[in-house]
């Protein structure tokens, strides 16, 4: 048990030291530790200037990104199809096997909700733990694509295209470098678990809402940021974490603009607080859904424990437990779930820490909070998939690759190989 305690201590040490470094850097940017400093070269008392391209340029960019995204997902689909027929000795056409390959795990639940809504009784009552926005979008898409599964895939692909579009514009606003913006998209699409963005899962929807929230937040468009933050919180519980960077950005952008007299100060602050309140409103609406369906505001917590054997735990202990499971004999689970979950935590920490001085603090604060919450579930089957929703990682990778161009090809190939590997492990039912 000594090595378990050592891992817990290491995780705790990394989080505490990283947190202190992040807080120190953020305080400097808020002028709390002396002279005012800029946030990666941008004035602290002015919102970021948006990329106001003409509609023709935006349309051209959207078409380019659509082609790149659809081509990349087609390659993923083809790799899965060829690997499936080779390994399963199961012949059939691409369209015949598509559902058989990709219709797994949570896909069943989202489609059930889209078709039938939430239930108060029976086995389907446990589906209340799934947040409502994504199945609602599938239900709407069914008006255009009758088959629920393909409606879900369509929603995911559309949201993936829009996620990449907003990511490009966000990165271009931050760094004024199209090469870095395209790299960020590349690493989103090459991420080893990015196949989840093109099937009936919430990843691409959550990415869209969180990236769009940051896009408007960094420009000081608080109402738009709050609305997308609300939608993110209606997609996954991680969405409420957007509150932390938005509070920081409000303080940073307006720290020298607070009126001196109270009537003007209230008039200045009130609309910003209301836009900020939109984000937790997403969670409140989810609790209202719980109350409406079951009569209990927090019934989802009971269902998490009863059916999903999950709760909120101590992240360091959870990581130690994952390391214990790595010693098990279920080698497919070890390769597809436990090792990626364990290694993913430390790689994410490394990317966050090494990017602290390269990116605005809002990205680092959000990444730090997101990582802690993602590793808090006591039965952590989906840790690597949760990392797929942490979009700043793709920006951090793009910046790293821009600085180490001699290693960029090696990074790209490695990510591509792991994407193919985990795609295969997914239809072997060991990636969740």
TrEMBL record:
Entry membrane topology: Multi-pass membrane protein
Transmembrane segments: 7-24, 61-84, 126-144, 150-172, 184-217, 223-248, 269-289, 338-356, 363-380, 386-402, 409-431
Keyword Transferase recorded: yes
Main location: endoplasmic reticulum
Keyword presence, Transmembrane helix: yes
Pathway: Glycolipid biosynthesis; glycosylphosphatidylinositol-anchor biosynthesis
Source taxon at top rank: Bacteria
Keywords: Endoplasmic reticulum, Glycosyltransferase, GPI-anchor biosynthesis, Membrane, Transferase, Transmembrane, Transmembrane helix
Localization annotation: Endoplasmic reticulum membrane
Protein name per Swiss-Prot or TrEMBL: Glycosyltransferase RgtA/B/C/D-like domain-containing protein
